[in-house]
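Follow-up to my earlier ticket, as requested here are the two runs.
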Amino acid sequence: MKSTVDEIRQRFDADVERFSNLETGQSATVDAPLAMTLVAQAAAVTTPHARHVLDVGCGAGNYTLKLLEHAPNLDVTLIDLSQPMLDRAKERISQATTGLIKTIQSDIREVVLPDAEFDIVLAAAVLHHLRTEPASRPLAL
């Protein structure tokens, strides 16, 4: 049986410390330190004039932190179901950028975002959580 959005939110609300470990990543391959570094390097190289990154399902901000090592001082928009994850991500990322940081606590399928606002979109460890679209409208990022 698939987890509900509320079950996913509760699980991540309770697991901020584990998901905040930048040195070891998480147990999934997509969050391994080498994978994070390669994604960050690729994003930085392919968008050298980037100014604004969107991190969808940001967790504790690990991918954005890695990206900021290669593309410093970006403006950052963070989306996550979990407010404790957003709080930790903002705290950590604020030490790594002089850019603006915006947080949005929401199901990513329900967020309305402006067109042509973001130069880089990270969605590293979130897409597998999307089971169905909400009745209101389809996902459009």
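Run two:
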Amino acid sequence: MLQNQTRLRMTRQRQVILEELRQVDTHPSADEVYEMVRKRLPRISLGTVYRNLEILSESGEIQKVELGSCLKRFDGFPHPHYHIRCVRCDRLVDAPTQFDVSLEGRLQSETDFQILGHKLEFSGLCPDCK
């Protein structure tokens, strides 16, 4: 069931994409999601996966991660949280720290900006690369 208030129609393809994405914590690319989904829906096209990932991202069901890498990644956990990216192998994991919403309030009070949100990505070397 979609969490978003917009009543997005949950097609079989969207449901399978969402289920597959929520079963992993690897933050796969669209191509990787496509390979995962094809095991259950062999006739699905890559274009359909790309379109539905964008729709699910825009509806707030998943998170699109596009910070330090040129490759878009997708995260089945849509709630605000931080990531850590390996600068050598591009591995992306959830940071084990709380999301700090107070940063937004402090920045808004100290600037002329209306802060709508923030994303933070840490970079380093993963255990396999260090």
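The only thing I checked on run two: The beta strands are 63-65, 73-75, 83-86, 92-94, 121-124. Let me know what else you need.
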